[in-house]
């Protein structure tokens, strides 16, 4: 495979990560507007919000089966337009059943999209022989910042959901379809597909479980920041309403910055050291948030969280690809499910503990879980799993 083709494939996949970041941010940051548009009650809203990650997990399971017959690039090529059209459907409907249908389609397609994007990222990283996964997730973070900014503008100017979403979809849908022409993977069809299919059943859940736990813990931490940072700053640390919106924006920016330089850290120090450093920094961030005496100290804690957590998820996908080099698509599809497990558990867990105990105390729970990732950090440098009598060893550069 030529260097030019790899570069084009890397750029097109980066575009897909960016588009997904924009799309997801536009949905989750306009939840209050969606609730108002469809008259969704406060009691029913958690059902809608929980349904999206549950269906996304189902979409990831289906993707595992589909990629046994077609390549991940085919799944990604068609899943991304469905996600964008589902977002447009959320903005265009008026009846409750229309919202349920659009968000259901969004959830299923997002699961397929997340799984196939990371499958291709791991495959390209293998072809490059060095760490590039964090760069893809940096593109996602950049898209998230762009999407959140557009959502803020829509809310500020009191634009309808359809008016907010339609120009984004009109621009990004054809861009994603055109970009998909240059999707490539680390192995050619004739070299890798038969091996990948033949060894799909070789993924050991016991070997994969440490990475699954790390994925869940990371997303518990992430969802805590996403859902509770504003409330914590305002209700616990006494900030103004305006200032309480700052921590999540700071968190997103630090996530972008950390991922933008994270690949260099992995190449220099190795994945295990980077994951350990990220775990300690994120745990320290939660500790600072829990003990903060004022809003500015709290924001320092959330800043530390962004730099710490940002490296974990991309490296978890990369580690699964290294651990099961002959069945990386299957491993990543299964690992991706625990993305949604963490998202589902994190916010309700912190909310329940905050109501029953205190929100300061509740912040200590994700702190402990994030710190527990140190126990599993060695899995990020594990040797590939054995397949019968064979043993495929990764390139040295690919590990670090």
TrEMBL record:
Coiled coil: none annotated. Keywords: Membrane, Transmembrane, Transmembrane helix. CDD domains: MFS_MosC_like. PROSITE patterns: MFS (PS50850). SUPFAM superfamilies: MFS general substrate transporter. Pfam families: MFS_1 (PF07690). Residues 208-400 form the Major facilitator superfamily (MFS) profile domain. It is a multi-pass membrane protein. The chain crosses the membrane at residues 12-31, 43-62, 74-93, 99-120, 132-153, 165-184, 205-228, 248-266, 273-293, 299-320, 332-351, 357-377. It is found in: Cell membrane. PANTHER family: BYPASS OF STOP CODON PROTEIN 6, INNER MEMBRANE PROTEIN YBJJ. This is MFS transporter. It comes from Streptomyces laculatispora.
């Amino acid at each position: 495979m030529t260097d030019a083709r790899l570069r084009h494939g890397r750029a097109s996949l980066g575009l897909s990560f960016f588009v997904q970041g924009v799309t997801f941010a536009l949905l989750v940051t306009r939840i209050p507007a969606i609730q108002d548009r469809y008259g969704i009650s406060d009691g029913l809203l958690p059902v809608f919000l929980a349904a999206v990650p549950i269906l996304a997990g189902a979409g990831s399971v289906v993707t595992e089966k589909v990629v046994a017959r077609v390549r991940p690039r085919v799944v990604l090529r068609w899943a991304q337009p469905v996600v964008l059209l589902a977002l447009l459907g959320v903005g265009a409907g008026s009846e409750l059943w229309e919202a349920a249908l659009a968000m259901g389609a969004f959830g299923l397609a997002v699961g397929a999209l997340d799984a196939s994007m990371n499958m291709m990222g791991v495959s390209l990283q293998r072809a490059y022989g060095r760490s590039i996964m964090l760069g893809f997730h940096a593109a996602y973070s950049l898209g998230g910042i762009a999407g959140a900014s557009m959502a803020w503008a829509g809310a500020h100017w009191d634009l309808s959901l359809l008016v907010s979403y339609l120009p984004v979809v009109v621009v990004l849908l054809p861009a994603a379809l055109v970009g998909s022409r240059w999707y490539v993977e680390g192995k050619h069809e004739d070299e890798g597909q038969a091996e990948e299919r033949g060894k799909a059943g070789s993924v050991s859940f016991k070997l994969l479980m440490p990475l699954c736990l790390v994925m869940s813990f990371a997303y518990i931490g992430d969802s805590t920041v996403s859902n509770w940072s504003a409330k914590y700053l305002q209700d616990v640390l006494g900030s103004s309403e305006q200032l309480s919106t700052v921590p999540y924006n700071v968190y997103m920016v630090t996530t972008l910055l950390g991922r933008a330089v994270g690949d260099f850290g992995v190449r220099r120090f190795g994945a295990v050291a980077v994951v350990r450093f990220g775990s300690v920094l994120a745990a320290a961030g939660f500790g600072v948030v829990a003990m903060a005496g004022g809003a500015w100290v709290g924001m320092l804690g959330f800043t530390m969280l962004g730099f710490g957590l940002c490296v974990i998820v991309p490296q978890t996908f990369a580690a699964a690809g290294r651990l099961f080099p002959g069945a990386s698509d299957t491993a990543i599809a299964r690992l991706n499910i625990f993305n949604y497990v963490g998202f589902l558990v994190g916010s309700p867990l912190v909310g329940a503990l905050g109501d029953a105990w205190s929100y300061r105390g509740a912040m200590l729970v994700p702190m402990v879980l994030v710190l527990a990732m140190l126990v599993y950090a060695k899995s990020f440098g594990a040797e590939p799993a054995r397949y019968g009598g064979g043993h495929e060893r990764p390139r040295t550069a690919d590990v670090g």
